[in-house]
Amino acid sequence: MPSLGADMEAGTVSQWLVKVGDEVHRGDVVAVVETEKSTIEVEIFESGTIAEILVPPGERVPVGAVLAHVTSGTGHAASTVPSAPAATPAVLPAPVVTAAHAATVDAAISPPAPVARRSTVHSPVLRHLAQELGVDLVTLTGSGPGGAVTRADVEKAAGRGGDGTRRRGRATGKPKSVPPAELQPVTRVSSSPLARRKAADLGIDLSAVRGTGPHGSVIERDVQLAAAPALPEKAGPGTTVADDRAAAMRRAIGALMARSKREIPHYYLSTTIDLTAAAAWLEQANIERPVTARLVLPVLLLKATALAVGRVPEMNGFMTDDAFHPSEAVHVGVAVSLRTGGVIAPAIHDTGGLSLDELMTALKDLVGRARAGVLRSSEMSDPTITVTNLGDLGVEAVFGVIYPPQVALVGFGRVTEQPWAHDGMLGIRPCVTATLSADHRVSDGHRGARFLTEINRLLQEPEKL
Amino acid sequence: MTSEEARQLIRSVLHQVAPEADMDDVGEGETLQEALDLDSIDFLNFVIGLNEETGLEIPERDYPQLSTVGGCVTYLTSTR
Predict the structure, then answer these.
(1) pLDDT at A132
(2) Distance between CA A369 and CA A361 in Å, rounded?
(3) For burial by CB atoms within 10 Å, which of A144, A149, A190, A432 has the most?
(4) Per mean pLDDT, which of A61-75, A156-170, A444-458 is the most reliable?
(5) What is the dihedral of CA A413, A419, A425, A431, to 10 degrees?
(6) For residue A226, what pLDDT is reported?
(7) Which residue has better confidence, A144 or A218?
(8) pLDDT at residue number A108
């Protein structure tokens, strides 16, 4: 069970999209997992053949539990693995067979760059857990693949059971119990659990719905669309499930934010950025574009943030083991507010490397899927820095709480017209307040200021973004 | 397009953009973005939806006219 976000303790496998004997390739979506926050499509990080599925649908298991065994193939299949070695020597399958699995998925799913230089690879979550329970990871004998230390090992060493659901701060967080029957695929149609629930609520026949999910599976949105004409009713029988989920999400957010405020010595900076150039460029760019290809301002803000990280690397990476591990890759997490309540901040991979058009496409897709409740495992585990944009809700500035183990969060407020002195003249200009919340264990206000200044500088030359 | 057709169209597009939102609570003159909690991407998707349904290439400078249901109805019924 991969760690799909720092606030995740356990997850429920709701569906397998592969069966024993199936050939899989790195990055394929193999299972659907439900957490408090979302329904997540879990990508596999090895290529090979599914040898054994250990956790049946409907079962809730702690992060680190082994979900399935993969036999790595030979020839071309094996050749797709090499991107892993740098980061994950501990979980590499032996040349011939053996299993590679989820024990240290957090590290394994992530691209090799972030935290390569460690003697033994443990996921940030595992290291955090070990630290919290006072367990020295070096002395542990791992029961995972290649001797990798699993969460269960750590908890055993600390004299606790392997039941990840009763860990810190979760005493009140009852594991969400869902009747297993509800999670079994009801027809041959491949569909997400949310879609099935929705379909049941709305009385829709899943086999009649055209799927747009992975492998043509039916996702919630498809059901929603199929039901659109017949959906005048609000607050159907699905409300209870939604309420449960909202409550669980609130608890998960509360636990993570409490941990952030407890552990991270935040400092805050704020600056007002003149957006005249950016707004003019955007307007010009959009005039030439059909409505479907238009850009929105947040795309420029995201790109500028991602590029600014290049100059101030202390903002990008993870604080684990009491040490900062800068990430070479920049995967900006985008805080997406859900209309049903709550917020989720999945990553746009390699944000700085995408063109503005690619970034726009990625952002639209990500926001849509975050709201539909269908995200990828790597999107949940990979953000190296987060951007929150509350401008659309009308506030001028947001001082955010850092998502551990990240070390910085950039906030943008509403674009407002401000009286602005420029070249000795007073004029009215569109402006935005950019804020930075950063980890004092990693950087100081001086570097933070440099970072915000760099974002400002980049936004003055939007054509170069 | 009659104003009733326009109203239907706006409703259905908004429902696609924000399925969770309750259209019944939105007054004719209320700002859509505030009433339905739409962000800039939602609003763009709304415009794209209108474009797909009507074929209208709605320029960005017309966005302010689309900020309310009433405004949208006027816009859709008068541009055609």
Answers:
(1) 63
(2) 12
(3) A149
(4) A444-458
(5) 10
(6) 63
(7) A218
(8) 32
DSSP symbols for A170-206: -TT-PPPP--HHHHS--SSS-B-HHHHHHHHHHT--G
Is the CB of B41 inside 8 Å of chain A's CB atoms?
yes
**Chain B partners of A225 at a C-beta cutoff of 8 Å?**
16
Task: Tell me which of B45, B56, B60 to substitute to probe the interface with A (most A C-beta atoms closer than 10 Å).
Answer: B60
Q: Do A296 and B44 touch (CB under 8 A)?
A: yes
pLDDT band at A143; cut points 50, 70, 90: low
> What is the pLDDT of chain A when averaged over all its residues?
76
Inter-chain contact B40–A297, Cβ cutoff 8 Å?
yes
Instruction: Record the pTM.
Output: 0.65
The string of pLDDT tens digits covering residues A431-452 is 999 999 999 999 999 999 999 9
- Domain ranges (residues) in chain B: 3-78
Cα A349 to Cα A353: distance, rounded to the nearest angstrom: 9
Q: What is the DSSP string of B29-49?
A: TSBHHHHTT--HHHHHHHHHH
What are chain A's domains?
10-166 (2.40.50.100), 185-231 (4.10.320.10), 265-464 (3.30.559.10)
Determine the distance in angstroms separating the CA of B79 from the nearest CA of chain A, rounded to an integer. Answer: 17
Token couple for A367: 């926001």
Is the CB of A235 inside 8 Å of chain B's CB atoms? no
In angstroms, the CA A143 to CA B35 distance is: 54
Residue B19 CA, chain-centre distance (Å), reads: 14
pLDDT at A75 over 50: no
